[in-house]
Each structure stands twice: as structure tokens, then as C-alpha cells.
């Protein structure tokens, strides 16, 4: 939703940041793989050190780096369907890794399961439409898109550490936060499902009219 409404100004920022990576000779796919590796490394390290400030900051930097692959592709005229597909798959693994890390570190498996299924369904409910009809990647202004989910997860980690410093357990913050996240992502998945159904219905009506002419 935020990325859809403010995509143009944000693209300018990403391209400004990406120029350094272009000068280093990194390809868009290399940026994608590196961003994915940074997120996974952060998730593997968190259960060992348990510091939310470190985890949240590491995630914020890693996700920001990962977001530069599209800008590198635009600046170098190397945008490809394969690169876009790779980026989408790595993005899903990143989200799953963050939620799995929190679940493992704090024994919040049920909450993380609800969260990850909703997050995956948001993506699937748009991707599956492309099997039935041509769709573009824009104009899907649903509540918890990729950018919102990433920001929520990072802020959730920071909040848990702040609560811990105030004398609470990490779980006292993370459990309700994960449940709230799960509600939001499943709402967004249903929102996207309804939008997809309308588009498919309109597509079917147009196809029927064409067949009758």
C-alpha cells in the first residue's frame, strides 16, 4: 500500500543508493542473493545472542540492501523476468526466516505459523490470478504488502527489546504482536482474494462478450 502510493519518490531514493552497487559491478541477481543471505544470517544468529536491537538493525539494513536489486536492474538496463521471479521467491524465504527465527527463539510456533501462512497467501492470491488472466504488478493496493510486512516485523523486534529493557519478557510483546500481524496479513489475503475474484469475473464477462460477437 505504501510502496504503491509513494513508489516514484522511493524509486528515486533506491536508485541513488544503488549507484554505489552499480559502480562496484554487482548484478541485480547478486544483490538479490546477498540480501537474502544477510537476512538468513541475521535470523540464524538471533536465537544465539537474543538482542533485539542487533537483530532489528541487521534486518533493517539487510532488507534495505535487498530492496536495491530492482534499482540496480533499472540503472543497468538488466531487468529480466527471471530476475523478478528470483526476487519474489527470495522475498518469501526472507519473511519465513524472520518468523521462524522468532518462533524458535521464543517458542511462538503457533503465532508464527498463523503469520507466515497469511503472508504467503497475500503473494499467492495475486500470483495465482496470472495463471488465469494477464495481470500487472501494480494496482494491488492492499493493506499489508511486502513493504508494510517488513516494517512491521522490524518494529516488532525493536518493541520486544524495548519491552525487555522495561522488565517484560520478550514473549509478552512478541506474542500479541505476532497475533496482530497474523490478523492483518490474513485480512490482506482476503482483501486480495476479493480483488482477484472481481478482476477474474470482469475478465470472464469480457471473454463471454467477445465469444458472442
CA-CA gap between termini: 39 Å
Instruction: Write down how many β-strands occur, each being a DSSP E stretch of 2 or more residues.
Output: 0
- The CATH homologous superfamily is termed CDP-alcohol phosphotransferase transmembrane (TM) domain
CATH architecture: Up-down Bundle
Write the layout of secondary structure elements.
Layout: H1 2-5, H2 7-23, H3 28-49, H4 52-66, H5 69-75, H6 81-106, H7 109-127, H8 129-132, H9 146-165, H10 170-212
Helix pairs in contact: 2-5, 3-4, 3-5, 3-6, 4-9, 6-7, 6-9, 7-10, 9-10
3D architecture notes:
The structure is a single chain. With 213 residues, this protein is an all-alpha fold. It has a single domain (2-212), classed as CDP-alcohol phosphotransferase transmembrane (TM) domain (Four Helix Bundle (Hemerythrin (Met), subunit A), Up-down Bundle). The longest helix is centred in the last third of the chain and has 43 residues, at 170-212. The relative contact order is 0.12. It is built from ten helices and no strands. The termini are far apart.
Highlighted features:
213 residues, Four Helix Bundle (Hemerythrin (Met), subunit A), 10 helices, mainly alpha
Amino acid at each position: 500500500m505504501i510502496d504503491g502510493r509513494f513508489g516514484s519518490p522511493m524509486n528515486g531514493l533506491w536508485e541513488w543508493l544503488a549507484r554505489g552497487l552499480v559502480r562496484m559491478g554487482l548484478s541485480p541477481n547478486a544483490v538479490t542473493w546477498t540480501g537474502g543471505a544477510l537476512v538468513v544470517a541475521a535470523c540464524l544468529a538471533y536465537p544465539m545472542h537474543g538482542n533485539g536491537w542487533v537483530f532489528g538493525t541487521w534486518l533493517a539494513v539487510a532488507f534495505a540492501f535487498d530492496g536495491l536489486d530492482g534499482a540496480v536492474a533499472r540503472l543497468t538496463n538488466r531487468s529480466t523476468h527471471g530476475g523478478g521471479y528470483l526476487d519474489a521467491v527470495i522475498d518469501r524465504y526472507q519473511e519465513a526466516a524472520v518468523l521462524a527465527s522468532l518462533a524458535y527463539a521464543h517458542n511462538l510456533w503457533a503465532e508464527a505459523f498463523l503469520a507466515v501462512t497469511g503472508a504467503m497467501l497475500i503473494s499467492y492470491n495475486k500470483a495465482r490470478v496470472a495463471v488465469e488472466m494477464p495481470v500487472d504488478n501494480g494496482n494491488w493496493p492492499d493493506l499489508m504488502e511486502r513493504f508494510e510486512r517488513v516494517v512491521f516485523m522490524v518494529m516488532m523486534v525493536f518493541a520486544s527489546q524495548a519491552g525487555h529493557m522495561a522488565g517484560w519478557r520478550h514473549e509478552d510483546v512478541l506474542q500479541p504482536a505476532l497475533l496482530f500481524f497474523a490478523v492483518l496479513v490474513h485480512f490482506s489475503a482476503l482483501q486480495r482474494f476479493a480483488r482477484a475474484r472481481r478482476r477474474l469475473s470482469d475478465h470472464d464477462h469480457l471473454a463471454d462478450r467477445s465469444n458472442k460477437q
